[in-house]
Amino acid sequence: xxxxxxxxxxQVYSARNSLKPTNFxxxxxxxxxxxxxxxxxxxxxxxxxxxxxxxWFIQMLLAHGHHLYHFLVDGQPMLDPQASxxxxxDDNQPVSLVAVS
Length: 101
Prior knowledge:
By secondary structure, the chain is mostly beta strands. The protein has one helix at 9-12; strands at residues 19-27, 34-38, 46-47, 49-50, 55-63, 65-73, 76-78, 85-88, 94-100. It has one domain: Immunoglobulin-like (Sandwich).
């Protein structure tokens, strides 16, 4: 059974169902490791890659909407100063907010 065939065209091609490449940068040139964790990956940290300029980078495919996340710099949570805003996670800890449109 094709699940897409059973949905109205407006749902299949809506922004909500599309994924957009979203770039994350973390300025932590002295860090040994930087990871990204958020509601889009069930808070399971994924390693970021250090660029030649010392900045850490990763690109994630995210769905339309608002997403919570933070960086883990050498294991310690860090907010993103370039984030769209801040919010609180389920443990009432501050996290960064990114809006994907």
